[in-house]
Amino acid sequence: MNTALILILGIPLVEIYLFIKVGSQIGAFNTILLILITAVLGVWYARYEGFNTLRSGMSQLIKNELPFYEIISGAAIAFAALLLIIPGFATDILGILLIFPFTRKLLFHKYSKKYPKSKNLKDGNFIDGEYEDIDDKKNER
Do the beta carbons of residue 58 and residue 101 sit within 8 Å? Predict the structure, then answer.
C-alpha cells in the first residue's frame, strides 16, 4: 500500500482514538481546552524558536559560513508549528519533539551521519586560476 494513503487514513484514526481515550479520562471540555492551549502555546514558541534560528543563521552568514543546520532547523520548526496547529495528541507530541532544540538536534544528529558536514567558504574550496582572452590576440595580428 502507498505510504501517503496509509498516513492519510492512519493519522486521523489514531487522533480519534486518542481523543476518545483522553476525553473519557479528563472530560470533553478539558480535552478541547488542552488541544487549544497546545496550539496557541506551540505557535508562540515556534515563533520564538524561529527568530532564534534566523538570528543564528544570519550570524553564520556574517562569518561567511553556510547555515545548513539553521535552514533545516527552520523547516523543522515550521513543520512543528503546523503539527501543533492540527488538532490531535499524536501530532502535538511529534510537534513538541521537533520544536525544542535539544530533541531537534538529537533527531538531526541521527540523520546527519549520511551527509557530509557543511564547509566553511574560507577553507580554500575554490580553484584559483588565470585566463587569457584569445580574441584580443587575434585582433592584434
Answer: no
